[in-house]
Amino acid sequence: MEDKEVIKEESIASENIENQAEGNIQEEGNHEASSKTTESSEQKLQQEINDLKDKYLRLYSEFENFRRRTAKERIDLIKTASEEVIKEIIPVVDDFERAFKASENESDGAKVREGNHLVFHKLVRVLEYKGLKAMDGLVGKAFDPETQEAITQIPAPSEDMKGKVIDVVEKGYTLGDRVIRYAKVVTGA
């Protein structure tokens, strides 16, 4: 019986050795498969990195082109922004030239003055149409540093004129809601 047990033990031992050998072979295969998987995943990640770099460079280039294009358009717009206003003022300049020629032969000053007023009002209409407004009616109102520039102070003619506009030396103008030239005024002290 001992012989049977020895044979049985030997067969179990040989099976264990075979199983270990198979396990080692499987481990080596798994290790090789694992390293192949690692290599392929590294390649995939590297490819993904390259794709993202390419997308980034393309996007950066597109943005730089956009920035240059908009800067050029902005410069062109600034250069030509006044074109429309100038086109509308040119006929007024023509009217002034005609008025100068006509006034050379005219002896009646009233007619010359009337012609000058017509041309002046035409120019004012063009500018008002473009949004320019004169600051009128400032005399007697309180001084406003947001829209006016006090160039001097004089003694107020009456007590109620202290701190108020006494005279307008140069008109102020607004374009829309923005002051483009402050009114130069004399205030009462």
UniProtKB/TrEMBL annotation:
Region named Disordered:
1-47
Which regions are flagged for Basic and acidic residues bias?
A: 1-11, 28-42
* Task performed by this protein: Participates actively in the response to hyperosmotic and heat shock by preventing the aggregation of stress-denatured proteins, in association with DnaK and GrpE. It is the nucleotide exchange factor for DnaK and may function as a thermosensor. Unfolded proteins bind initially to DnaJ; upon interaction with the DnaJ-bound protein, DnaK hydrolyzes its bound ATP, resulting in the formation of a stable complex. GrpE releases ADP from DnaK; ATP binding to DnaK triggers the release of the substrate protein, thus completing the reaction cycle.
Which residue windows are coiled coil? none
For this protein, the record's InterPro entries field holds:
GrpE, GrpE_CC, GrpE_head
Query: Which protein, by its recorded name, is this?
Result: Protein GrpE
Family that this chain belongs to: Belongs to the GrpE family.
Composition skew (Polar residues), residue ranges: 13-23
Per the UniProt entry, the signal peptide is none
What's the name of its gene? Answer: grpE
Q: What is its subcellular localisation? A: Cytoplasm
Going by the entry's taxonomy, the superkingdom of the source organism is recorded as: Bacteria
